[in-house]
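Thread: Newbie trying to understand structure tokens

Hi all, I'm a second-year student working on a class project, and my supervisor (Dr. K.) asked me to get a predicted structure for one chain before our next meeting. I've only ever worked with sequences, so writing a 3D structure as a token string is new to me. If someone could post the tokens and maybe explain what I'm looking at, I'd be very grateful. Here's the chain:
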Amino acid sequence: MINALVKGVHQLGDKKTQKPLWISIALALGVFIVLWVTSGAAIKYTAIFDYGWLETISDALGWALVLVITWILFPGVVSAVVALFLDQIAESVEERHYPGLPPAQGQTVGEQVMTALRFLGVMVLLNLLILPTMLLGPIYPVLFYCVNGYLLGREYFEMVAARRMDMRSTFLLRRAHGGRLFLTGGCIAFLLTIPVVNLLTPVIATAAMVHLFEDWRRRAEFKAGGGGSGDASGGSGGTAVTPRPDVSPPA
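---
Reply by user tm_fold:
Sure, no problem. This is what the structure looks like when written as tokens:
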């Protein structure tokens, strides 16, 4: 897990990774600039109280709410934006570290958009549901990292796996490595809360997930081919992995 994340950091120096990185950063910042400008205008030109001091308090609370919403939305928004460039990032990782792989089918633009919107919707909804626990002190940070760690680990893995594997095989592989995937997602969630680093994190996470996917897939294929003990159908001893019909396994 740590090794995959370190490789993800090194991937930032790859020229083919830098283009989608800067485009995704620009788009994510653009979304939040629109949010801040719109919110600022609404706060400035909307008067709730007749008394000046009450209106000042109201405006301060309004800006505090905007900051909270921004913090909640940020992981989902930047990850959804990067999902649109996931194929380019994954391909650059594969060319550098797995040159023997055949081309992946990838996803159409429509599928990428739907995946990004679904991811963003689920993430925003669950984060809004746990928001009231912010009043309970240390409970909220624990819930925040657990919920987002699970979501981020699952979604990044499924987006990467969908390029080379059908949904059933993706589920079996994800279930076989659920614990490590959760911990990886937790690390990603933590990095997404660090200013500046959070702009780079989705690309790092995508690259890291490609490494984890290839490692786990090859182990599963080795076991399914008789290289290890246990049931190859997804039981306690192994995980059957079926490549997408249009993608042949690596040599």
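A couple of things are worth pointing out once you decode it. Residues 228-251 have pLDDT under 50 and may be disordered. Residues 2-223 form one domain. Feel free to ask follow-ups in this thread.
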